[in-house]
Amino acid sequence: MPPPLPPFLPPHLRRRCFSTAPAWHDPPFAARAAEQHCLRLLERSSSPSAVLQSLAFLLKSGLHSNPLVLTRLFASTASAAPALLEPLGAALLGPSVPIDAFLVNTLIRAHATSPLPSARLRAASFFPLMLRSSVLPNKFTFPFLLKACAALPGSPGVGLQAHATALKFGFATDHYVSNTLIHMYSCFGGGFLGDARNVFDRMPKSSAVTWSAMIGGYVRGGLSSDAVGLFREMQTSGVRPDEVTVLGVLAAAADLGALELARWVGRFVEREGIGKSVTLCNALIDTLAKCGDVDGAVAVFQGMEERTVVSWTSVIDALAMEGRGKEAVGVFEEMKTAGVPPDDVLFIGVLTACSHAGMVDEGRGYFDSMKMEYGIEPKIEHYGCMVDMFGRAGMVERAMEFVRTMPMKPNPIIWRTLVAACRAHGRLELGESITRNLLNEYPAHEANYVMLSNVYALTQRWKEKSEIRREMSKKGIKKVPGCSVVELDGEVHEFIAGDESHPQWKEIYMMVEEMARELKRMGHISATSEVLLDLDEEDKAGALQWHSEKLAIAFVLLRTPPGTQIRVVKNLRVCSDCHAAIKCISRVYNREIIVRDRSRFHRFKNGCCSCNDFW
């Protein structure tokens, strides 16, 4: 007998299931014909309604226990109607269904590649079904299974068991399985990158896929310098990189802010004849922008024959990062004229551009247009952009009112954005109140402690600041140290405030002292309010002198001829003292200095900054 009809089947299709005599009473040749017809229907099913119509025929024809038909059904559902995948599995995968490796592989793959998180979490659970049914896995099983394990958050144990099972069945050394093992271990985080590298080191390296998997793993694990180093090894080995390799190297360059590497990759793609797909061009736009070459990113965009909404979003984001809000908005208007419909991600870029350029009225107009013109419901990220926009413009009360009227609960990022606005515009009591509430609700997040500690320091309440610091120490919470990176002659140099680990640290420190003398001669006065320590003014000025971006700039001044552009990438927001100091340095030494901090770009030239001090 067939299984009960799935409850989600529409009434007209439920009637169709019983419109003629059941096919399980037909002769074998009729059943075979029904099977072939059902397979053809499923092959052509490209929408949820088509999948449901094929399902109705499947049930009417008694094919509910046919593993070949079920395999095709789940494959078609995964691509045409992913929301039906889980309910179909629950309704059809009963004890009477004969299990084979083809069916289970399809189930694992369909769930692992689903856009729905709940389906991805279930993908690995089908492998035990195979073992309980005494069906042996094959070499196609483990790549799907390991990819499913990679998507399990905080569950490396399942992946380790899958690796052990692959070893047991003799598939761990298969090329495709090994590549997926590298991917899986790198997805588990930095602690497992050594396992990924062990797999990589033990396998043949004749394929670009293998190198790409390990390069991508290093990038995901935050070891972008290692990714670049491995790419150099790949070139030496004679293996030709493919598009995936290039995408990994571009991601590493973006993370490091390594502009010369990004430009070299662009030339390499041209020279080697690697196809410049839309995806690759989008990645190149993003990388050049994050390395500070926004004009180069715009040039790549303008040279694209085909553009997607991601292309437009990438160039709008690039302009937004450098505070070129009017240009970003101009690109958006050009996109509308071209007839490309915007999505919710693109609007984040547009609102960010308005925020960084102080274009409050324009930003409010675009926010309202999301729902009114395009039917896009604003998400919490869009509300966060609006809060940031009001806060940067000094409209703290307007930002607070906006938060109170949000249709969803504000997340910690929005509250911290408000605190930053309160600090920037002297509303310290309100900032303290918000931060205390954040600490009560999210006691494990280090940023909340740091913000409250900073508020106490700004109001010179050193005792309370010390208590907060002790509480952080007790909980094992550490403040992220400021770190600045520069690329010179293909090598990346990292600097931390007060650090003496660089081989040239003595010369660098002497250069920093020379810079301080030059700035003093110009009349620059250190913004000692930025030093949130209980020190006298002279000691505070001394502490500011050794910030990581100043060490990085001093190093480049030492190592490059006059007039050379300086590019610095910093992991934290640039403080107001460094911002003012770098403006002076750009004039004294006649250098263009580009600094990328965690939220935007600052282009310093002739004593001015591209942000117009609106940051």
How is this structure best described in words?
The protein has 615 residues and is mainly alpha-helical. The chain is built from 32 helices and six strands. It has helices at residues 11-16, 28-43, 48-60, 67-80, 85-92, 101-112, 117-122, 126-132, 141-150, 156-168, 175-187, 193-202, 208-220, 224-237, 243-256, 259-272, 278-290, 294-302, 309-321, 325-337, 344-356, 360-374, 380-392, 396-404, 412-424, 428-441, 446-458, 462-474, 505-522, 537-545, 548-559, 576-588, and strands spanning 483-488, 491-496, 566-570, 593-596, 601-605, 608-609. It has a six-stranded mixed β-sheet with strand order 2-1-3-4-5-6, with helices on one face. Helix 17 runs parallel beside helix 19 and helix 19 packs antiparallel against helix 20 (325-337).
